[in-house]
Amino acid sequence: MTYDLIIIGSGPAGYVAAIRAGQTGLKTLIIDKKYVGGMCLNWGCIPTKTYLESAKMMKKVRSAPEFGIAGIDLEALSFDWPQAVKRTDAVVAKLTRGIEFLWKKNGVEFIKAEARILSPTKVQADKRVFETKNILIATGSRPAPQNLFKDCLDLEDFSSLPELPQAPLIYGQGGNMVELAQFFSLIGSKPVILANRLPLMPYLDEALESFIQKKLKKDKIPVLLEAESEIKDGMIIHKGKEYPFDKVLNVSFRKAVLPAMDIELELENGFIKTDHSHKSSVQGIYAAGDVSGRAFLAHVSSAQAMEVIEAIQGIEPPAEERQYPINVYTDPELAQIGLTESQIKDKGVDYKVSQYPLTANGKALAEGTSEGYIRVLYETKYHEVLGVQIVSEHATDLISEAGILMELEGTTYDLARTIHAHPTISEIYMDAGKVE
Amino acid sequence: MRYIFKFPDIGEGLEEGKIIEWYVKKGQSIESGDALVKMETDKVVTDIPSPKSGILAVLYGGVGDTVKVGSALVEIDIPGVEGEAAVAQAQDKPEAPSQETVDEKDFAGVVGTMEIAGDGAYLPSGDEGRPVKSDAPKTRKALATPVARAMAKDYGIDINEVTGTGPAGRIMKKDIEGHSKSSASVNIHVPMPKASAEGRTRIEPLSQIRKTIAKNMLRSKQSTAHMSIMDEVEVSALVEGRARLNEALAEQGIRLSYLPFIIKAITLALKDHPILNAELDMENERIIYKNFYNIGIAMDTPEGLVVPIIKDADRKSLIELASDIKDLMSRSQERKLTLDDLRDGTFSITSYGSIGGYFGVPVIAYPQVAIFGIGRLTEKPIVKNHELAIGQILPISMSVDHRIVDGAEVSRFLNQVLAYLKEPLLLLAYEGGTQ
Question: What is the per-residue pLDDT for A260?
Answer without folding.
Answer: 96
